[in-house]
Amino acid sequence: MGRTSLYINSVLTPIKHELAATGPEEHSDGMFTVQAAQHALYASFILDPLVFGIFGNAVTSAMSPVMHNAAFKFCGMPHHYRTFQSSSLVDLDAIVRDPNFGGASISAPFKKEIVSHLDYVSPEAQAIGAVNTLIPLRSRKLQSLLDRNRAGPVVALFGDNTDWIGIHTCIKRHLSPINAVRKRTTALVLGAGGMAQAAVYAAIRLDVKTIFVYNRTFENAEKLVDQFNGKFFSAHNIDLVANSSGSCRSGSITPPNQKTGPIAVRALPSIDEPWPAGIDPPTIIVACISRVSENGGPMPKIVLPDSWLASQTGGVVVELAYNPVDTPLLQQVRSLSTRGWIPVDGLQVLPEQGISQFELFTGRKAPEHIMRTEVRKYVEATS
């Protein structure tokens, strides 16, 4: 019946905005801010400080720690996000055994390799064939996924993929109404790696039925085509932002609520060839090509032929590379802005997938503006 019940209460907890909570009397009306309630939960040992991080072989300069730590601080969570640089997936075992392990972002080259080491994989990650988000479970039941922000022995692992969400969000946000997805809409994905897989799946979830893939190595493009071409896809919704306090929470894993297919995916053999006859030029283009080749040298600059950009209504081009932000492809797209083409750089995609990761990690609604702003500020300060 007092203030303690406010932050332990599981539903309709009264709160006030932080701008209305100033001075020593901020709790005099019996109401908390969200941040104060969070501090109380952790100070009362109802929830536990956890360690998160990004795991990969080249993550020392990753922007994820800046983004996630700023989000934790804003939300009043004493969690910490760091980098875990390694050349072997074996090193992940010691990290996972830590009772205070809260989750990890999985980076290259382990997104595919880690799938076989997991107890549960989301339908989206299964369809993509790659995992970029690792969540520890404190019991063998998948339902324990809904009980986060608590320390304890990790007995199982759940994998998900938020890369596709970042791509999907940016396409949907920037695709003009005249280019709304229709039966004849075509998408083009440049590249054939893990991010290209996520990009194809993002286009599928946008209900695009015809997708083309171009990659310098045609055989790799064909492998990506084989993974998706002619397939049907179902999507599940897992309510992962259902629990907020230490109280028992009701979360649900729902049956499939969306089905699409069959999807037509084709590989383009050469960038020098004209766009296939009888098929509308793409209005959705996603570039997933690394800036560094396998031998360590720079990748060739990608500029698309005119026939591939012949859409009468323009479209949206998403460039996933962000170091540097400005690429020859984005420069080309900006020169076509009067024809309706809209460029989207990688710094817009990065926080969108991170926002979904934060919500998977914590079960809390992410402070989206904070995360987007921190990414931009970091780049401006280091460029």
TrEMBL record:
<dbReference type="InterPro" id="IPR013708">
    <property type="entry name" value="Shikimate_DH-bd_N"/>
</dbReference>
<dbReference type="Pfam" id="PF18317">
    <property type="entry name" value="SDH_C"/>
</dbReference>
<dbReference type="InterPro" id="IPR006151">
    <property type="entry name" value="Shikm_DH/Glu-tRNA_Rdtase"/>
</dbReference>
<dbReference type="Pfam" id="PF08501">
    <property type="entry name" value="Shikimate_dh_N"/>
</dbReference>
<dbReference type="Pfam" id="PF01488">
    <property type="entry name" value="Shikimate_DH"/>
</dbReference>
<dbReference type="InterPro" id="IPR022893">
    <property type="entry name" value="Shikimate_DH_fam"/>
</dbReference>
<protein>
    <recommendedName>
        <fullName>Shikimate dehydrogenase substrate binding N-terminal domain-containing protein</fullName>
    </recommendedName>
</protein>
<dbReference type="InterPro" id="IPR046346">
    <property type="entry name" value="Aminoacid_DH-like_N_sf"/>
</dbReference>
<dbReference type="InterPro" id="IPR036291">
    <property type="entry name" value="NAD(P)-bd_dom_sf"/>
</dbReference>
<feature type="domain" description="Quinate/shikimate 5-dehydrogenase/glutamyl-tRNA reductase">
    <location>
        <begin position="183"/>
        <end position="239"/>
    </location>
</feature>
<feature type="domain" description="Shikimate dehydrogenase substrate binding N-terminal">
    <location>
        <begin position="54"/>
        <end position="134"/>
    </location>
</feature>
<feature type="domain" description="SDH C-terminal">
    <location>
        <begin position="346"/>
        <end position="376"/>
    </location>
</feature>
<dbReference type="InterPro" id="IPR041121">
    <property type="entry name" value="SDH_C"/>
</dbReference>
